[in-house]
TrEMBL record, chain A:
Organism of this sequence: Cytobacillus eiseniae
Top-level lineage group: Bacteria
Protein name, UniProt field: Zn-dependent peptidase
Domain Peptidase M16 C-terminal: 185-357
Automatic annotation (TrEMBL), chain B:
NCBIfam families, alphabetized: YfmH_fam
Domain of life (superkingdom): Bacteria
Protein species of origin: Cytobacillus eiseniae
Domain Peptidase M16 C-terminal span(s) in chain numbering: 181-360
Residues annotated as domain Peptidase M16 N-terminal: 62-174
Protein name: Zn-dependent peptidase
Length: 425, 426
C-alpha cells in the first residue's frame, strides 16, 4: 500500500475514485466535469455551475436549498472552476460531518449523494430552460466576479501576463469567461449547453472518508447514471519556438508595481524531465530558501514577496513580485542573473537535497486534506497518466544536478509584464 | 503531564506547564502525514505601551511587534528558513492584534524542526544593519496592503470605531513609523514579551506525546530564565461610542465595497462568559445573514450583495467588533439596509432557525478540526483568553434564544454603528 490507497473504477459513464481513510471527521464528495477550453464555451461553463448550485426542483430557492444543507449539520457545498492546460474543469464539492462524531446518528453520506444528484440532474426548470430569474441573478454575479479581477492587482497582473503570453492560445481565456459574452446568454441556451456538457464532458467522482467501497459504488450506480462517452483528447502544444522577449508595461494608479515574468518550460506533467523541472523551480524561486527569495528579497531588499510557480499542464513557469516602480530594472536584472546561475549549474548538492525535502513535505501535506488529495489525484486524469504519489517522490529523488541544468536550458523567457504606478512612465 | 479527553470528537490532548512558565500542549493525530507546531507569544500590535521589567513605561513605534517577528528569523549565520528547509519543513509566522506566532509544518525530522523552532524564537539576534535592511522589505509589505482594497476597507472600519485603542493601528505600522525602529527597541520588546511564561507551544500531528514533551523539557532545562514580574500593559480609556460614523475611501477599483461595523461592549470578559457572547453573536449573524436567511436572498436578488458578502463577530481583551458587508453596486443603500436589519433584529429570531444554525455551526467545527493549523492557532487564541477550543461544541449546544437576545440587546445600539466604504476614484 502506498501513501494513498485510491480505488478507481469505470461505472455509468464516469470514473468513480474512492479513498478510504479514517483520518477525517468528515466525508467529502467531489464531482468534476472536464471539457476543452474554448472561446465559445468558456463563459457558459463559468455560469452553469453557479446556476445549478443556486436552487433545484426540490429546493426552488437558495434559502430552501441552504436550509437543507444546514440541516445536514452544515454540509459545506460549493462550486469552483479551474483551467488546466487546454481544459476547463468544473468542480462541485460537498463535505459533510461523519455522523460518528455527532450525538445524532442519522447517516449523512447517502443524503449527501441524493443532494448532489438533485443539483446535477434535477435543476429548477421552466419550459426546457433554467429558471430565468436565477440565470439573470447569476449573470449579474458572474459579471461582478469577472470585474473583481481588476480590483485585486496581484490577480490582475497575473491574468494580464497570461493574456499577453498566450495571446493566440485558448489558455489566454479567463477561467470565468468573457465579460461581453455574459449578457447575451439566455436561460434556454444555457440549458442546452447543460445537456450537452452532461453528455460529452469527461466526468470523475471522488469520494473520500471513512466509507465502505461497496456501499458507495451501489449508491453512485443507482443515483448518478450517465451514458458512456469518449474523453476528448487535446495534445498540448509544447516546444514553442524561442521568440524575442515580449515586454509589456501598463500604467495604473497603484503604489506598488507588480512584476510578472512568464517562461515556457517546454515540459509537461509526467514527462521524463518533469521531476527535474520541479526541483529546478524549487531552487530557482518556489520557496523561501530559493534564489529569488534570497537575492531579490533578503539581499537587495527590493520585495516582500517574490516567487515562481509552474503551470504543469501548460508548460509555463511564472515569477511574481511586488516592487517599487523605480526598482524595475534592478529586479529584472537580478531575476535574470538567477536564471543564468541555474543554467550554469551554480547551485549545490545541498540546495538539491533541501529542495527535494521541501517538495516531498509539500506533497505529503497536500494529501492531508481531502481537497488537496483530490487535486493531486486529478493530475492523472488531466494528463492521462497514472503516476502514484510514491512514484512521483521516487522519481524526484533520483534527479541529478545535470538533469536540473538540462531543464534550465529548456526554459525560455517569453514575456515580462509590469504593472506600474503613474509617476514612473 | 496531564491527559485531557474529548470523547465525542475522539481526540486526546496532553498538557504540561513547565517550571519556567511555558504552557505546552500536544495533540497526537494518527493517520496524518504532517506535524504542525506553533510557538506563540501573547504579544501583538496592540501592545505598544507598557513597562518593561523593572523599567519606566515606554511607548514604542507602530508596527514593532510585526517587525520583531520578521527579524527573529535572521541569525548571525543566515536565516532560519534555510535551516527549516534543509530539514524538509516549511516555516512561517504571523502577527495579529494580540499574538505573534511562529510555526512550522513538516512530515519528517519533526524533533529537529521542533528544536529549531524553539531555539530560533528564544535566541534573538538583532543588529543595526539587519534592522535597516528589513525596513525595505517591510516597506514593500506595507505598500502591498495599501493597494489592497479589502484590507483598506477592514482597517478603515476599525479606525472608525476606535478613538484611542491601538487596535486602530495597522499591524505592520507605516513606512514612517517603522523608520524609527532600532535594535535596542526590538530587544526591549523581546525581553518584555518573549518570556516562556507569556508563551504557549502547541504541537499537533502523528507524534508520540511522551517523546515530544521530553524534548521540550530537556530543551528548556538548558536555558536560564529569571522569573518575570507581571507585564504591565497600558491602555487609555476608550469611549463606548464609535469615533467616526462613516468613512469613504476612493481607490483604483471598479466595484464598490461597503462594511458596516458595530463596536463591542463587554470587552472585559474572559473564559466561558466570553465564549458564550462570541458564539451567541456569531449564531445571530448567521441566522440574520447566512445563505439560508431571507435577508441574504433579498439582498442577493436585489443585486446589493454578491458572493463576497460576509459577516463575523470577534472579541479580544479590550476591544471587539461585528462586521457585515462586501462588494456592492450601491454602498449607501447596502449600509442603510444592513443597519436596519441589525437594529430591528431583536425579537425576530425563531427557535427553528436557532436550532438549524446550531447544527450548521457544529458541522463547521468538525470540518475545521480536520485541520491541524486550525486546531493549533485557535486553541492558542482561546487559551490566551482563558477559553478552551474544545468547549465550542457544548457551548453551541447550550445557546438559547435568551442568550442571543441578551448579547444582541447589549451590542446593537445606534451609537456603536459605523460604516466604511471603498468607491472607484473619480
Amino acid at each position: 500500500m502506498g501513501i494513498i490507497s485510491e480505488s478507481v473504477q469505470a461505472i455509468n459513464g464516469y470514473k468513480l475514485h474512492i479513498v478510504n481513510t479514517d483520518k477525517y471527521k468528515t466525508n467529502t464528495i467531489v464531482w468534476k466535469m472536464k471539457a476543452p477550453l474554448t472561446k465559445e464555451d468558456v463563459t457558459l461553463r463559468a455560469l452553469l455551475p453557479y446556476v445549478l448550485q443556486s436552487n433545484s426542483e426540490k429546493y426552488p430557492t437558495t434559502g430552501k436549498l441552504r436550509s437543507y444543507l444546514d440541516e445536514l449539520y452544515g454540509a459545506s457545498f460549493f462550486v469552483d472552476l479551474a483551467k488546466k492546460g487546454e481544459f476547463h474543469i468544473i468542480s462541485f464539492s460537498l463535505e459533510m460531518a461523519n455522523e460518528k462524531f455527532l450525538t445524532d446518528p442519522t447517516p449523512l453520506l447517502k443524503k449527501g449523494f441524493e443532494f448532489l444528484t438533485e443539483i446535477l440532474l434535477k435543476p429548477n426548470l421552466n419550459n426546457h430552460a433554467f429558471n430565468k430569474v436565477t440565470v439573470e441573478n447569476e449573470k449579474r454575479t458572474l459579471k461582478q466576479r469577472i470585474q473583481s479581477v481588476y480590483d485585486d492587482k496581484m490577480r490582475y497582473s497575473n491574468y494580464r501576463l497570461v493574456q499577453e503570453m498566450c495571446k493566440d492560445e485558448s489558455y489566454s481565456l479567463h477561467v470565468h469567461g468573457e465579460m461581453e459574452a455574459v449578457e447575451p446568454i439566455t436561460a434556454e441556451q444555457l440549458y442546452e449547453y447543460y445537456l450537452q456538457a452532461l453528455k460529452t464532458d469527461e466526468l470523475d467522482l471522488y469520494v473520500i472518508g471513512d466509507v465502505k467501497e461497496d456501499e458507495v459504488k451501489a449508491i453512485a450506480e443507482q443515483l448518478l447514471p450517465f451514458d458512456d462517452r469518449k474523453p476528448q483528447v487535446i495534445e498540448a502544444s509544447v516546444n514553442h519556438e524561442k521568440r524575442n522577449v515580449h515586454e509589456v508595461k501598463e500604467q495604473q494608479d497603484v503604489k506598488q508595481g507588480k512584476l510578472n515574468i512568464g517562461y515556457r518550460t517546454n515540459i509537461l506533467y509526467g514527462d521524463d524531465d518533469y521531476y527535474a523541472l520541479q526541483i529546478f523551480n524549487g531552487i530557482f524561486g518556489g520557496f523561501s530558501h530559493s534564489k529569488l527569495f534570497l537575492n531579490v528579497r533578503e539581499k537587495a531588499s527590493l520585495a516582500y514577496y517574490v516567487t515562481s510557480r509552474l503551470e504543469s499542464h501548460k508548460g509555463l513557469m511564472m515569477v511574481m513580485s511586488g516592487i517599487d516602480n523605480k526598482n524595475y530594472e534592478e529586479a529584472v536584472r537580478i531575476i535574470h542573473e538567477q536564471m543564468e546561475a541555474m543554467i550554469k549549474g551554480d547551485f549545490t548538492e545541498e540546495e538539491m537535497n533541501q529542495t527535494k525535502a521541501v517538495i516531498k513535505n509539500q506533497l505529503l501535506e497536500t494529501v492531508d486534506t481531502s481537497r488537496g488529495m483530490v487535486e493531486v489525484l486529478y493530475h492523472n486524469v488531466v494528463s492521462r497518466k497514472d503516476i502514484s504519489l510514491q512514484e512521483w517522490m521516487d522519481k524526484m529523488d533520483q534527479v541529478k544536478k545535470e538533469d536540473v541544468m538540462a531543464v534550465a536550458k529548456k526554459v525560455n523567457l517569453d514575456t515580462i509584464y509590469f504593472l506600474t504606478g503613474k509617476e514612473e512612465l | 503531564m496531564e491527559k485531557i479527553l474529548f470523547d465525542q470528537l475522539q481526540e486526546e490532548m496532553y498538557y504540561e506547564k513547565l517550571s519556567n512558565g511555558l504552557d505546552v500542549y500536544v495533540l497526537p493525530k494518527k493517520g496524518f502525514n504532517k506535524t504542525y507546531a506553533t510557538f506563540t507569544t501573547k504579544y501583538g500590535s496592540v501592545d505598544n505601551h507598557f513597562s518593561p521589567p523593572g523599567k519606566e513605561e515606554v511607548q514604542v513605534p507602530d508596527g514593532i511587534a510585526h517587525f520583531l517577528e520578521h527579524k527573529l528569523f535572521e541569525k548571525e549565520d543566515g536565516d532560519v528558513f534555510q535551516q527549516f528547509s534543509k530539514q524538509g519543513a516549511s516555516a512561517n509566522a504571523f502577527t495579529s492584534f494580540t499574538r505573534t506566532a511562529y510555526l512550522f509544518s513538516s512530515t519528517s525530522n519533526v524533533e529537529k524542526n521542533l528544536e529549531t523552532l524553539i531555539d530560533f524564537v528564544q535566541e534573538p539576534y538583532f543588529t543595526e544593519k539587519t534592522v535597516e535592511k528589513e525596513k525595505g522589505i517591510i516597506g514593500q509589505e506595507i505598500t502591498m496592503y495599501d493597494d489592497n482594497p479589502d484590507w483598506r476597507l477592514y482597517f478603515g472600519l476599525i479606525q472608525n470605531m476606535y478613538k484611542n485603542h491601538p487596535v486602530k493601528i495597522d499591524i505592520a505600522g507605516t513606512i514612517e513609523s517603522i523608520s524609527h525602529i532600532t535594535k535596542d527597541m526590538l530587544y526591549e520588546c523581546y525581553h518584555t514579551f518573549y518570556h516562556p511564561s507569556n508563551m504557549l507551544l502547541f504541537i499537533v500531528g502523528p507524534v508520540d506525546q511522551q517523546e515530544i514533551m521530553k524534548l521540550v523539557k530537556d530543551n528548556q532545562a538548558l536555558k536560564e530564565y529569571k522569573e518575570l514580574p507581571e507585564i504591565k500593559r497600558i491602555f487609555e480609556e476608550e469611549p463606548q461610542i464609535v469615533a467616526e460614523k462613516k468613512q469613504v475611501l476612493q481607490m483604483n477599483v471598479q466595484t464598490s465595497k461597503c462594511l458596516v461595523g458595530i463596536k463591542a461592549v463587554n470587552v472585559n470578559q474572559t473564559g466561558k462568559e466570553m465564549m458564550k457572547t462570541e458564539l451567541s453573536l456569531n449564531v445571530m449573524l448567521d441566522i440574520l445573514f447566512g445563505k439560508s436567511s431571507d435577508h441574504f436572498s433579498t439582498l442577493y436578488n436585489d443585486g446589493l450583495i454578491d458572493e463576497t458578502f460576509s459577516f463575523d463577530y470577534t472579541q479580544e481583551n479590550g476591544f471587539g467588533f461585528a462586521m457585515v458587508g462586501g462588494d456592492t453596486s450601491d454602498p449607501d443603500r447596502l449600509a442603510e439596509v444592513l443597519k436596519g436589519i441589525l437594529l430591528g433584529a431583536k425579537g425576530t429570531i425563531t427557535t427553528e432557525s436557532l436550532e438549524r444554525t446550531k447544527k450548521k455551526k457544529i458541522g463547521a467545527f468538525l470540518r475545521a478540526v480536520n485541520s491541524p493549523e486550525y486546531i493549533a492557532n485557535q486553541f492558542t487564541r482561546y487559551a490566551f483568553n482563558e477559553m478552551n477550543l474544545f468547549d465550542v461544541v457544548p457551548t453551541l449546544e447550550s445557546i438559547t434564544l435568551e442568550d442571543i437576545e441578551k448579547a444582541a440587546g447589549e451590542l446593537l445600539s445606534e451609537e456603536r454603528f459605523t460604516v466604511c466604504q471603498v468607491v472607484p476614484k473619480r
